[in-house]
């Protein structure tokens, strides 16, 4: 019982630490919520679902691996491989969104040198529409985030499941997985919520056309950090 208590405490601590030290766990949600003007509820919901996919995939791999008797080294190799995949996925998403940001930027200025009477009314209205009044009808972005986080491994979780598995304690495995998941997802939600609320004080005003480009660059840097620097 004492060992399970200490393991649970470690699971909570590592769930918090690995999330805080991994900016890829929260930066994409914060910058996209600002760029796409998601509401707080929508931002929190997308973060929560992505967190479930992030933790749940590692829990599933861990439980299946332990049930099949796969060694810890092989399970850690699987998680490391998934880490490489998610790094490239986030990097590719950052590249794609940066290109989208460039497209949005160039689209917002093509008629800026023309007299107002030569610019179509709908184009003028779009150009002068404040960012916080633009509606985001895109449903693809949240799903892309979710899929990326499903591939994202929780490398520290599987080793913690080995001890209760060795003790043949299914309850212990479930407890450790649950505590780690709550700590990870809770930290994601809290960090994203604070970042989302704080971003509302940042007003771009005349530079609103840069917001998608900036979001793409931040995600790109985050992905590049994982791929090339092992963040």
TrEMBL record:
It holds the Pfam family DsbD_2. The keyword Transmembrane helix applies. It comes from the Bacteria. Residues 41-222 form the Urease accessory protein UreH-like transmembrane domain. The chain crosses the membrane at residues 6-32, 44-70, 85-103, 143-165, 171-194, 210-230. It comes from Sunxiuqinia elliptica. InterPro entries: UreH-like_TM_dom. This is Sulfite exporter TauE/SafE. Keywords: Membrane, Transmembrane, Transmembrane helix. The keyword Nucleotide-binding does not apply.
């Amino acid at each position: 019982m004492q060992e399970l208590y200490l393991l649970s405490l470690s699971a909570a601590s590592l769930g918090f630490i690995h999330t805080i030290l991994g900016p890829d766990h929260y930066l994409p949600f914060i910058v996209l919520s600002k760029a796409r003007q998601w509401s707080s509820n929508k931002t929190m919901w997308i973060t929560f679902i992505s967190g479930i996919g992030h933790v749940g995939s590692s829990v599933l791999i861990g439980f299946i691996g332990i049930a099949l008797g796969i060694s810890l080294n092989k399970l850690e190799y699987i998680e490391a491989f998934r880490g490489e995949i998610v790094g490239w996925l986030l990097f590719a998403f950052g590249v794609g969104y940066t290109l989208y940001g460039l497209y949005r930027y160039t689209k917002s200025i093509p008629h800026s040198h023309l007299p107002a009477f030569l610019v179509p009314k709908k184009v003028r209205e779009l150009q002068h529409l404040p960012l916080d009044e633009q509606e985001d009808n895109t449903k693809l972005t949240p799903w892309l985030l979710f899929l990326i986080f499903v591939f994202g491994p929780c490398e520290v979780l599987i080793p913690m499941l080995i001890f209760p598995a060795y003790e043949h304690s299914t309850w212990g495995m479930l407890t450790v997985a649950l505590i780690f998941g709550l700590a990870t997802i809770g930290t994601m939600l809290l960090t994203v919520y604070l970042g989302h609320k704080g971003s509302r004080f940042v007003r771009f005003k005349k530079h609103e056309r840069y917001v998608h480009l900036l979001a793409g660059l931040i995600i790109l840097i985050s992905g590049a950090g994982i791929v090339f620097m092992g963040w």
